[in-house]
């Protein structure tokens, strides 16, 4: 284990299957590597025009603002809907179903969905997307490692072995033994 604090930022969009790969791997390794994983919902359309995930990413943004403890679960449920079950996550009912499956009450999910177009949510998503661009993002996922006053930007879900090296940690493949024990 390297020196603390070690923070990783994952900029992602649920429309990106490669973001999902990076998300799952980093969620599995965050405790093994003892890193603080900061999930940063980012609008890929702000980087790559016409992606179509605006409402879903705004919803994740308000979840992060008001229920950060549910962000990982809601993100995963949206990925499951679009990439495992071929369901349309641009539809409000699909977003609500993902939130409910992740443990959010129907009423609370509806309330948050009604607020996705507020200036606070729009501005936060824009700020996060701008932050990814400032790190040099040209697509997603982007993982930013903050180590010993240095910042490293890694693009793609196939850079986890390099990330492990930067952290001074062991790479044990996409599903480390500790994660398989929980499955």
Automatic annotation (TrEMBL):
The active site is at 16 (nucleophile). GO terms for biological process: glutathione metabolic process. It catalyses: RX + glutathione = an S-substituted glutathione + a halide anion + H(+). Keywords: Transferase. GO terms for molecular function: glutathione peroxidase activity; glutathione transferase activity. Residues 7-167 form the DSBA-like thioredoxin domain. InterPro entries: DSBA-like_thioredoxin_dom, GST_Kappa/NadH, HCCAis_GSTk, Thioredoxin-like_sf. It is an enzyme of class 2 (transferase). Its EC number is 2.5.1.18. Transmembrane segments: none annotated. One of its GO terms (cellular component) is mitochondrion. Belongs to the GST superfamily. Kappa family. This is Glutathione S-transferase kappa 1.
């Amino acid at each position: 284990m390297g020196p603390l604090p070690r923070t990783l930022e994952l900029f992602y969009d649920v429309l990106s299957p490669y973001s999902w790969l990076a998300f799952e791997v980093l969620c599995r390794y965050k405790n093994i590597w003892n890193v603080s994983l900061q999930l940063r919902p980012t609008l890929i359309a702000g980087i790559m025009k016409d992606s179509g995930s605006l409402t879903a990413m705004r919803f994740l943004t308000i979840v992060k603002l008001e229920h950060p403890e549910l962000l990982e679960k809601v993100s995963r449920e949206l990925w499951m809907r679009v990439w495992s079950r071929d369901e349309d996550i641009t539809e409000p009912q699909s977003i609500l179903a993902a939130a409910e499956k992740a443990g959010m009450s129907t009423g609370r999910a509806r309330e948050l969905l009604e607020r996705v177009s507020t200036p606070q949510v729009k501005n936060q998503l824009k700020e996060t997307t701008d932050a990814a661009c400032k790190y040099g993002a040209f697509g997603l996922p982007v993982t930013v490692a903050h180590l010993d006053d240095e910042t490293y930007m890694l693009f793609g879900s196939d850079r986890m072995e390099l990330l492990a090296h930067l952290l001074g940690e062991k790479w044990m493949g996409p599903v480390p033994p500790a994660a398989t024990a929980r499955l």
